[in-house]
Amino acid sequence: YCTRLQAGQGYGNTFKCVLTVYRNESVAGFFKGMSFPLVSIAVYNSVVFGIFSNTQRLITQHRYGNSNHPPALIDLALASMVTGAFSVGIGTPVDLVKIRLQMQTQTFIEAFALPRAHASPDPNQGPVHCVGTILRQEGLAGLYRGVGAMIVRDVPGYCFYFIPYTLFCGWFTPEGCLSPSPFSVWMAGGLAGAISWGTATPMDVVKSRLQADGVYLNKYRGVIDCISQSYHCEGIKVFFKGLTVNAVRGFPMCAAMFLGYELSLKALREQAETNP
């Protein structure tokens, strides 16, 4: 329901949004648009962690002559920025389909109070139908609506993701230990996720509004226009819609993600050592 808070109308605060979604759509309303992200999340996270780790190794190999050399802060920042830039290739279409499916539950009159003639005559019936509709009406470029906002969100966002994780892991790991414990990884990943999603909220609002735009009408001409219109209509507070939801969901989601990643790497290393 974070999308409803950021891009919808009339949902108010988090508590009111939860009640409205539940009252109008029951429990199923909280899971709208989730099938496509669930199917694609394994590929997306594989790409993200793969790009980050390989870029980090290339940087340390180039700078220190050893890919296993502990990375400096600037090395982590560069690897994170590269990861953020590449991640939008997969992330933008996934987020677009999710948001389109979530936002179409609003009626046109409730959402925008414009004549019904502008309403979409072809509601999406699922992720595959949604992709087909976008390709048919907007072409391939339509799948990348909001890509500019997503780049601005994810390039610094991944810096606030991988850098805090690395620092927290170092702080939580006792001296003499070669690797962090599962609890240290879980805690460091959760804190990093909360920080990353919390700081990314302002641009996440802009990205959500740009991607929701086009469901009923085209309201924004681009990132700057969306920022300008949103600010003039709702003030500075608009860029912090969904902040609590983003930070709270970021902790368990990213804690589990980093723990799974580190445990998988550990298992692969042990298997490689056992079967050289």
TrEMBL record:
It comes from the Eukaryota. PROSITE patterns: SOLCAR. It is a multi-pass membrane protein. Keywords: Membrane, Mitochondrion, Mitochondrion inner membrane, Repeat, Transmembrane, Transmembrane helix, Transport. Pfam families: Mito_carr. InterPro entries: MCP_dom_sf, MCP_transmembrane, Mitochondrial_Carrier. It is found in: Mitochondrion inner membrane. Solcar repeats lie at residues 1-58, 71-171, 180-267. Its main location: mitochondrion. The chain crosses the membrane at residues 34-52, 73-94. One of its GO terms (molecular function) is transmembrane transporter activity. The keyword Membrane applies. The keyword Methyltransferase does not apply. GO terms for cellular component: mitochondrial inner membrane. Belongs to the mitochondrial carrier (TC 2.A.29) family. PANTHER family: MITOCHONDRIAL BASIC AMINO ACIDS TRANSPORTER-RELATED, SOLUTE CARRIER FAMILY 25 MEMBER 48. This is Solute carrier family 25 member 48. It comes from Salvator merianae.
